[in-house]
Amino acid sequence: MLFTGHRHFSGFCPDMKGILLELIRDTYTPLLKLPPHLPDETWLLAVGKADPVFFYLYDGVGQLQIGEASRECLLQCLKQELGEPE
Predict the structure, then answer these.
(1) Which distant-in-sequence residues (6+ apart) come within 8 Å of 70 by Cβ?
(2) Are 13 and 51 in contact (CB under 8 A)?
(3) Which pLDDT value is given to residue 57?
(4) pLDDT, mean of residues 64-80
(5) CB distance 24 to 46 below 8 Å
(6) Is 2 helix (H, G, I), strand (E, B) or coil?
(7) For 6-64, what is each residue's pLDDT tens digit?
(8) Mapped to the 3 state alphabet, what secondary structure does 51-74 carry?
(9) 3-class secondary structure for 11-49?
(10) Between vectors from CA 57 to CA 52 and to CA 62, what angle results, nearest 5°?
(11) How many alpha carbons fall within 13 Å on the CB side of residue 55?
C-alpha cells in the first residue's frame, strides 16, 4: 500500500526543520559553490523564504522529496539570499 502526504517547510517542527536544513545544505552547498560554514540562521531564512513543499512517499520504504515545483523556487531563493559566487 502506498501512503503519501505533503507539507510546506514552515509546517514542520523545529527539530524536523533542522534535519531538512542539513539535507538541503548538503545538496546545495556544492551545487552553488557556497562557503561550507554559513550560519544556520542564514540557511533558515533562505529556505523559509522559499517555503518548499516536501512530499512523503511510503511503499515499504519512506522517502521525503522536495516537490518539483518547489525546487526551482528554492534554488532561486538560495542564490539570492546566500549569494552565488562570480
Answers:
(1) 50, 52, 53, 54
(2) no
(3) 86
(4) 92
(5) no
(6) coil
(7) 999 999 999 999 999 999 999 999 999 998 889 999 999 999 999 999 999 888 888 88
(8) CCEEEEEECCCEEEEECHHHHHHH
(9) HCCHHHHHHHHHHHHHHHHHHHCCCCCCCHHHHHHHHHH
(10) 110
(11) 12
Provide the sign of the torsion angle of the four alpha carbons 5, 20, 48, 10, taken in this order. Answer: positive
Tell me which residue has cell 542564490: 79
Kindly tell me if the per-residue pLDDT of 86 is higher than 70: no
Locate cell 559553490: which residue?
Answer: 33
Nearest-angstrom CA–CA distance, 26 and 60: 26
pLDDT score recorded for residue 55: 92
Residue with cell 511510503: 58
Cell (9 digits) for 13: 517542527
55 and 4 Cβ atoms separated by less than 8 Å: yes
